[in-house]
Amino acid sequence: MIKFxxxxxxxxxxxxxxxxxxKLAAQAIAKYLNDNSKTSLVVGYDNRxxxxxxxxLTSRVLVANNIKVYLVDKFCPTPVTGWxxxxxxxxxxxxxxxxxNPAEFLGLKFMTEEAMVAPSNVTxxxxxxxxxxxxxxxxxxxxxxATSSGQIEIFDPKPxxxxxxxxxxxxxxxxxxxxxxxxxxxxxxxxGVGYLxxxxxxxxxxxxxxxGNADPSFGGLPPEPIVEKYVQDAIEKVKMGGFDVxxxxxxxxxxxxxxxxxxxxxxxxxxxxxxxxxxFEIRKMRGPIVRTLSNTSMVDKLAKLYSxxxxxxxxxxxxxxxxMKEVAAVFGGEESGGSAINNFMLxxxxxxxxxxxxxxxxxxxxxxxxxxxxxxxKIGGGYKFKxxxxxxxxxxxxxxxxxxxxxxVANPPKEILGREIANIRSDDGVKFNFGDDSWLLIRFSGxxxxxxxxxxxxTIEEVDSLLQYAKDYFK
Length: 475
Fold this sequence. Notes:
Number of strands: 21
Shape: globular
């Protein structure tokens, strides 16, 4: 079954994500492009099993439907494919990746000509087209003939991407002024292997890369850098090796994870708070910021200090990108570690965000832990955050999702654990906002029997009690 969610279509390799379905999806996308007079596309892929094969297969379908294809010459991060849209001036891109999901998954993400994740009105057309076509309707050309004729142009996306990064951060100056920095890079065996290391090498920064071989199995762990148990090797190496920071990225290198000089992992919300501070204080940029409803409300306080607006949107980076475009926001991000800046492209990018963190450390000339304390003090103190996913069997999950969840929205409590509820948002799960800026969010997965619970409060004990409340309610 082909189903497009907030970040494209994902499935199990060889099961639902197979050659037949990839061809159907490619034909459906080709029809959308033809129907809208779009004539060119970038096709990229990460280092997962069969990602390169599916990218070539998709290119063959697109060319058979009169779509010019620019195919990356090897696996690369999602944002590199995204930037190639702008560099090649194409009508969008297809990226084969499953981001931070375990190794058995693969996915297809479509980005528009603006290098944004495709909005629902675009992916809805893909779905509508899928209902009209069958395997017999799929057109294919020979790959070698298409490359020799120039209909498929294989290219190296790295030089243009690196050149753009140098316009966003003074990397030469950063490396020259950072003689005291010792940086550990952790690409988690993913598509970002070698990227940040290459960018930072050749200067005064001491750079070391861990998990630097591109492994389709990701070393046996999901490539998700915001989950502490998946980066234990990096945490131990920071503690033993005297590093100032560890900069991690996920499987397709569009999300970050941070470990400070003490070997303490920062939450993704703390990372977003630091990046927002960097945008306003160090870069002196002004304009609204956008965050998902699962991201920290502390950035709202920070934005107010700089007389800027903050907007909250549903979970999913496509909503962040759409809102950033609508309100001309300077910065936006989500709870899962992905952020974007408006003078680049509205796609998450781990490389630029990790460079921003280094630039922040150099500009403040302080350890990362001290900068975080400094920023939290500016807004009246920091908050703690945790997310817990609760797994059910399918039958129990459907009952909870279809019965107990609507009951919670229709008859919400007046208070939770003695906390008065200031307001409730129910367009993407159920979010309870309390008067002290703490909150509890409950969301149901649309693709698996998982209840996702999130909470932010002043102490970790308060966070744990809120999450336990959610778990008890849905027993």
